[in-house]
Amino acid sequence: GIQVEQSPPDLILQEGANSTLRCNFSDSVNNLQWFHQNPWGQLINLFYIPSGTKQNGRLSATTVATERYSLLYISSSQTTDSGVYFCAVEGNDMRFGAGTRLTVKP
Amino acid sequence: ETGVTQTPRHLVMGMTNKKSLKCEQHLGHNAMYWYKQSAKKPLELMFVYSLEERVENNSVPSRFSPECPNSSHLFLHLHTLQPEDSALYLCASSQIMTRQGAKAFFGQGTRLTVV
User: Fold this and answer.
1) Rounded CA gap, B60 and B39, in Å?
2) A30–B101: do the CB atoms touch at under 8 Å?
């Protein structure tokens, strides 16, 4: 199956800092999604982005399908951004990366 | 609120118990999924139902038994579980899988502890 690797595994930021999370995948995919898992375990869709760039407030994402990677940018981070960020790709099924655990300190 | 509701939110069960997890979606989707998230491991796909037919069973032990009576409901029946089965169980739904892929929506999960 498709391998999905996310980096970094852990990230600690001071409130107001910017960050970039990366997702690499091993094969062509039909789509790619970014999720935020809040501290209570709920997964929230952030972006559905099989290719190109999208922006939503302080978050933006870019997927370069031909080079098999996607980036999630978080600007002016806030403590509520803390949690785990997952990248998921869909080939024959949905595959998730191991996630990046983000901690934003006040 | 994502439109996908899981109950219960938390469950503690003994190894000899039988329990069921429930998932309900109000999004008009026709594919539903069970995922397992163990500590320090990537999310694992357990079962996929498309149009109420099981599409994939990723070598999940038989002590986990899914049921999809209609396109809005999905159950995961549990029996004689092991402590290592303790995890967060997530349900998701999407439109039927196509070449273009589908956006998935997740429930809040059931935190299962097997004692």
Assistant:
1) 18
2) yes
Q: How far apart are CA A74 and CA A103, in angstroms?
A: 12
Locus of tokens 């996630």: A99
Q: Are B45 and A95 in contact (CB under 8 A)?
A: yes
B9-19 per-position pLDDT tens digit: 899 999 989 99
Distances (CA, A) of B61 to A51, A58, A75, A98, B43: 36, 42, 43, 22, 16
Asked if A88 lies within 8 A of B43 by C-beta distance, the reply is: yes
Token digits of residue B82: 């092991």
For the CA atoms of B6, B9, B14, B17, the dihedral, rounded to the nearest 10 degrees, stands at: -30
Evaluate the omega torsion of the peptide bond into residue A8 and state whether it is cis, within 30 degrees of 0: yes
How far off is chain B from A37, nearest CA to CA, in Å?
9
> What residue of A is the nearest CA neighbor of B96?
A93
DSSP state at residue B96: P
In degrees to the nearest 10, what's the CA dihedral of B55, B56, B62, B65? Answer: -50
Distance, in angstroms, between B30 CA and closest chain A CA? Answer: 15
pLDDT single digits (tens) A40-87: 556 788 998 989 999 999 999 999 999 999 999 999 999 999 888 999
CA distance B32 to B29: 8
Task: Please count the residues of chain B.
Answer: 115
